[in-house]
Amino acid sequence: MSEATRTAEARGAENAPRASRPSPRSFPWAVPPGASDDDIRVGRRRWYAGAVFALLWQVLEIIAVWTDGRSLRAHVVSSIALAVVYAAYLFAPELMWRRSLRGRVLVLAGVALLAGLLLFVVGPLAVWTWLLVAALSGFVAERFWVAAVVVLGIVGAQFLVAASTGWDTAVNSGILFAPVITVSVGASMLFFGRQREAEQRLGVAQDEITRLAVVEERARFSRDLHDVLGHSLTVVAMKSELAVRLVDVDPARAKTEMQDVERLSREALQGLRRAVSGYREADLDAELVSARAALAAASITAALPEDGEAAGDDVRSLFAWVLREGVTNVLRHAAASRVRVTLTRTALTVEDDGTGVLAPPSTAAVLGGNGLRGLRERADAVGAALTTGTSDLGGFLLRVERSPR
User: Fold this and answer.
1) Measured between alpha carbons, how far is 355 from 336 in angstroms, rounded to an integer?
2) Does the N terminus or the C terminus of the chain have fewer Cβ atoms within 10 A?
3) pLDDT tens-digit map of 142-190
């Protein structure tokens, strides 16, 4: 390989898309400092969807306040105080976007202070609003220990309130049950945090696999071009120079040399077309390697053929496209733990044990949209049929088959 080719490959590796950097450990609704506007929009949508659901449970708190036997004035003041805390809980994230950990903790402390002051207005029942502070703590949890400290602090405060009101009273009013719910909320946040971290690692792994595939393909294509054109163009240049020198001395030989130039040029053009054709077509062996790596990165048990030798030459490119689309759908939508790919000379089947045909709307849109439509067009071009259904594993089945000839 020439120095120029190696330089081109090095530049391709440098310019290829880099794997995204994992964001600080965060919960699904959290947005780390330095996030883009798109990340904030996604985080905002996730936060408000969960926050509104959490506030629905506070209806029980309002009912308890209005049925605690106090005066109407006390009920109204308590309701206003609760509304202030709910508003602070709901809109606190707007003050946290792009802030450092210290800034987020300060906002959280402000909400916690408001929730603590409810003890003087609402009474011991205010401990149930502290669940919102526990949930909000996930928003600042760039480290898991932050949420753990907040949850333990809330549980300790709830036990103090229960002790101050008397254990019998705390049991009868249900206040003693609040620490159990708080621990449950905290455990859920830790679980979602680990899940989010795993998703981030998987995304980074997939990006890196894609980047390496791009680098390898660029290197392969540059090598093909060098092998196809390097020798031919060198000979063409030499024969052209020779023909120029012979045109006055030996016209017949000069003519022969120019005929060789024409022949070599046509051969180089044909080689270039073959290289470009190979570049545009998907390679079944390469897709099997990529699918194995992607599924392994996603911790999905995969049974795949070692290579694509079993497939017929006229359907290898089609099978490669179907395999790529099938594995992509498994990774993005199926929530599967097992995948099986079966390959014969005339058929390829991708099966999983995920959500199956009765998938969420987003999955149906993908499978019934451009991806599946494009595969059907490719299948029709070679006389093959594409079918979908429920696999023996209980999930989704994607199969392409060409009738034997």
Assistant:
1) 7
2) C
3) 566 777 788 888 888 888 888 888 888 777 777 877 888 888 877 776 6
Q: 18: which residues sit within 8 A by CB, 6+ positions away?
A: 207, 211
Task: Name the strand (E) or helix (H) holding 339.
Answer: strand 338-343
Give the list of residues 6+ apart from residue 196 with CB closer than 8 angstroms, or none: 25, 26, 27, 28
**Residues 225-282: tens digit of each pLDDT:** 765 676 567 777 878 888 888 888 888 888 888 888 888 788 778 777 766 665 556 6
Task: Give the SS3 label for residue 384.
Answer: strand
- Cβ neighbours for 131, distance < 8 A, ≥ 6 positions apart: 54, 57, 178, 181, 182, 185
Distances (CA, A) of 337 to 319, 334, 340, 355: 23, 9, 11, 10
Query: SS3 helix, strand, coil % of the chain, rounded to 5?
Result: 70, 5, 25
Cα separation, 45 vs 344, in Å, equals 46
3-state SS assignment for residue 301: strand
Q: Closest by alpha carbon to 177, among 151, 148, 150, 155? A: 155
Confidence of residue 34 (pLDDT cuts 50, 70, 90): low
The answer to which of 8-17, 62-71, 378-387 has the lowest mean pLDDT is 8-17
Band of the pLDDT at 2, cuts 50, 70, 90? Answer: very low
Helix (H) or strand (E) holding 234: helix 178-246
Tokens of 24: 């600080």
CA distances, 264 to each of 164, 193, 203, 216 (Å)? 97, 63, 47, 29
- What single letter denotes the amino acid at residue 193? G
Tell me how far apart the alpha carbons of residues 197 and 48 are, in angstroms, rounded to a whole number.
21
Give the count of beta carbons closer than 10 Å to the beta carbon of residue 329.
22
